[in-house]
Amino acid sequence: MDDATRQAVQARSGGRCEYCRLPEAHVLTPFQVEHVIARQHGGKDALSNLAYACLRCNLHKGPNLAGLDPKTKKLTRLFHPRRHKWDRHFRWAGAELAGKTDVGRTTVAVLAMNDPERVALRQELLDQGLLLPG
Ligand SMILES: [Zn+2]
Fold this sequence. Notes:
By secondary structure, this protein is α+β, with helices and mostly antiparallel strands. Helices cover about 30% and strands about 15% of the residues.
């Protein structure tokens, strides 16, 4: 992947993780350009298959495309930042993220978005006015 592609993905994201909405400017670990559909599943380096993600979201997502919805236990695809609208699938619940749909619930679970240390970081950023829900 070339620098221009990486910069385009970063700029498009507005500097926020496209999964958990964490702002890159206020965390120490640089974000990563990730393949929504992993190369292992035939995903390309095209902008339409790339997303900007924080380290935690990217590590938990890995090559996963789907997971089990914690509510229905049904196999459900993960949130696709290029095809899905964030607000339709997620909502803020204080410093936690909640899934509004099967896709949202599954993505929150597989990406471990509400691990205690992640919620604590979001709460700290919210308290300091550095994280605006939405
Ligand atoms: Zn994230």
